[in-house]
Amino acid sequence: MPDTHLTTEPDSQALISAENLTVRFGGLPAIKNVNVSIGAGEIVTLIGPNGAGKSTLVRALLGLIVPTDGTITRRPNVRIGYVPQHVSVDDTLPLTVERFLRLGGRASQDQLEKSLAEVGALDVITSQFQKISGGERRRVLLARALLRNPDLLVLDEPTSGVDVTGQADIYKLIGSIRKAHNCGVLLVSHDLHLVMAETDQVLCLNGHVCCSGHPSHVSQDPAYLELFGHESAQGLAVYTHHHDHTQDHDHENADHEEPGYHGAPHG
Questions:
Q1: CA dihedral 162, 165, 166, 170 (to 10 degrees)
Q2: Which domains does the chain have, with CATH numbers?
Q3: Secondary structure (3-state) at 137
Q4: Is 80 exceeded by the pLDDT of residue 232?
Q5: Are 199 and 44 in contact (CB under 8 A)?
Q6: Would you say 203 and 44 are in contact if contact means Cβ atoms under 8 Å apart?
């Protein structure tokens, strides 16, 4: 019998965590002995090649599949907002953005508009969901997740179908949401370069945890270099150097900035 069980820990600082988590399909491990923990106000990013087990880990944490071994611990009554990588809507189905958001449950008009405004997508509320751009669609999906007033956001490739400029905007938006709501964020991404500015911890997965820690450390880890190559690491080093100078500038001007999120351009 597997010893997997779900527990709630009222004193735990983590919103959700997994210890020695293993999931097997047909006897073969998709993930093995994975440990991960996400706290309030923390962004944890899962990276890894295709088939590394990222989606399997997310599905296990969400309770969509039963792990073979290990323990998942959730804070009691934790609210989770989930943004899937793909959402399929029949092109022949008349569905405005407003109606799409209402499919997720009961929400007032004010709540819908506030959620869309926060992600910079209020102007598409009457548009057909199928006809809005990839960046706008990702923002609408984020808005739907925010309607749950989540303690934890789980975002599976949140920039799928978005151009590079739009991807950077989406990641900045995720960082703003984290600060405004103090929610934890579990982010699945294939590109460490784009998520570095907003990520606190990185988990590099390839069936097991190859390496983990601050993104600047992970980018120099031999296991990361083996998976993603030295060119990727060199690009990250240049980006980190530039970002450090930007951060210094931000700190110098911090006293002149208003807290919270003030909107973002469409992706």
A1: 120
A2: 5-79+151-254 (3.40.50.300), 87-149 (no CATH)
A3: helix
A4: no
A5: yes
A6: yes
Number of H helices, E strands in the chain: 9, 10
* Rounded Cα distance, 65 and 239, in Å: 37
User: What does the pLDDT look like over 221-231, one tens digit per residue?
Assistant: 888 888 887 55
Interval 105-124: pLDDT, tens: 788 999 999 999 999 999 99
Is the confidence at residue 246, as pLDDT, over 50?
A: no
Which residue, chain included where needed, has tokens 């919103």? Answer: 15
3-state secondary structure of 24: strand
| Half-sphere exposure of residue 86: CA atoms within 13 angstroms, side-chain side | 2
Parallel, antiparallel, or unpaired for β 201-205 and 209-213?
A: antiparallel
Q: Identify whether the C-beta of residue 136 lies closer than 8 Å to the C-beta of residue 266.
A: yes
Place of tokens 């351009």: 265
Residue 132 φ/ψ region, left for φ over 0, alpha for ψ in the -120 to 50 degree band, beta for the rest: beta
